[in-house]
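This part of the workshop introduces the protein records we will be handling. To make this concrete, we reproduce a full record directly below:
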Amino acid sequence: MIPKKYEFITFAFLMSSFMSFLMSGVISFVNIGLVEEFMSIWFSAFYKAFIVAFPSVIVVIPIVRKVVAKLVKD
């Protein structure tokens, strides 16, 4: 098991992984359709998206938490 002190990094890693995987697949399909080399194009798009998504999630999560705290009543 992963220690509690790594919860934030684990969350950011998994969130960016899933979102990059799903969105790169959808956008690749919308742009090129289901072509023969679709899987390799999807994987290429996925790893490029993940390189941007992971650090972005680390920066954005604290900001989003503060905004949500201000928008939601106790």
